[in-house]
Amino acid sequence: MLGGPRVLSLRRLLRTCRPSWRPRNPVVLPIEMLLATLVYAGFQLSTGMVGDTGDELVDSPELIAVSVVALLAMTAVTCVRRSFPVTAYLAVVAISVALILVLPDRTLGFTPLYWFAIATLAIRVTGPRLFAPIAVGLILEIAVSVDTRLSYPDAAAGPGGTIGVVAEQIVNLAINYTVLIALGKYIARGRAQELESQAALGRAEIEHRQRLDTALDNERKAMARELHDVAAHHLTGMLIQAKASKTLITSNPEHARELLTGAIEHGQRTLDSLRQIVGILRPGADMTYSLNTGFDTDTAPQPMISDIAELIEQSRISFASIDVDVSGDGDRIGGTDSAVQLTCYRVVQESLSNARRHAPNCAVRVQVVDRSSAIEVTVTNTITSGSSELHESAGQGFGIPGMRERAALLGGTLDAGLSDDRTTWTVRARLPIGGMISQPVELFA
């Protein structure tokens, strides 16, 4: 049976699907990039990659203050990258260009914060909104880089002269931007797949809940039908025979004894049926219930069409007369799907129970006919001189709806009603020969 643990496992999977590398707080990554920038700058200064710039910075507290303010400003604008990605990127570009222009060695202006801004823009923006700001940043980078490169002594004396310097800077920056944009797009694709997976898991959880609700509803209906059809049938017969024996105990004690014997037999059958159902409902029971076959046990086989004759013999004492007619190929009827045979039996059982309750001592006729493509079950009870007038049930009416549910599950139909002269009540069920429940659900397994 479908249960709660599977729902919980889906919830755990949804929670674990959230990537640990994507922090909820947008401030975390900018601060990490700021620390990376400081480490990178310290590495450049300590290894002499930028010449004597370290000494110039130490001798110029104002330059240090400007650099710190610029880095903090870049960190701050990067924190709003999720809401304003283009604005954050352009702000970082402007601050980086200003920092490059004021530092003694302009290579210190190319920081991890700037690279992070390029990748972040590629993650969150596509199309013209991506390429337009990237073009602006790239042009500014090229202009500053070329100017920086040409400021070195004898820079234009190399191969290609000034044009060679310009081409070299363009190629280097184009490669850098391509790598950072590709990295951003790769991350964006991973996040899109993650969101799609989470949405798919969410849909799966909703569908699972719907299937679970449907299965539980089917279980309740199936057990309600079984309790009603099995227990109510025997209890009705027991009560009616007990009441009849009470009136005959003095005038016809022999008949009263027969009625009491029948009532005891009905009571025993009711007790056996209830024990069977309780055994199914108890945890760890070996029995299962299936919409196809009903109670599936070796010791409690399900009643079939061939058992209708015994059912009628058990009920004969309650009616003026009962006729039964099973017509058609016996082997073909006996080979009909067990769910169809069980439903035929329950329809006859419930119809006899209703007749016993609402029109005692009436004449009953039961017909089971093989119609080639369907089994047709008709139960007709007609009032006699010793029976009361037929009337519509004033109770809750679980019997007929239950029979209709059984027939509908197999693709069949069931009609029930009074004749125009209010002397005959007819129940007619038509069930396909190969009627199989489309999606059988194993219950209490």
Fold and architecture overview:
- The protein has 445 residues and is of the alpha+beta class.
- It has 13 helices and eight strands.
- It has helices at 4-16, 28-47, 53-58, 61-78, 85-102, 112-124, 128-150, 161-248, 253-281, 308-315, 330-334, 338-358, 399-409; strands spanning 288-290, 294-296, 321-327, 363-370, 374-382, 413-418, 424-432, 442-443.
- A hairpin with a 3-residue loop joins strand 1 and strand 2.
- The longest helix is centred in the middle third of the chain and has 88 residues, at 161-248.
- Residues 1-8, 287-300 and 438-445 have low confidence and may be disordered.
- How are the strands of the largest sheet arranged? 3-4-5-7-6
How many individual β-strands? Answer: 8
Structural class by sheet pairing and helices: alpha+beta
The proportion of residues forming helix, as a percent range, comes to: 55-70%
Q: Biggest sheet, in brief?
A: 5 strands, mixed
Offer a concise description of the structure.
With 445 residues, this protein is of the alpha+beta class.
Which terms summarize this structure?
single chain; 445 residues; alpha+beta; 13 helices; 8 strands; 61% helix; rod-shaped; disordered C terminus
Topology:
Blueprint: H1 4-16, H2 28-47, H3 53-58, H4 61-78, H5 85-102, H6 112-124, H7 128-150, H8 161-248, H9 253-281, E1 288-290, E2 294-296, H10 308-315, E3 321-327, H11 330-334, H12 338-358, E4 363-370, E5 374-382, H13 399-409, E6 413-418, E7 424-432, E8 442-443
Parallel strand pairs: 3-4
Antiparallel strand pairs: 1-2, 1-8, 4-5, 5-7, 6-7
Helix pairs in contact: 1-8, 2-4, 4-5, 5-6, 5-7, 6-8, 7-8, 8-9, 8-12, 8-13, 10-12, 12-13
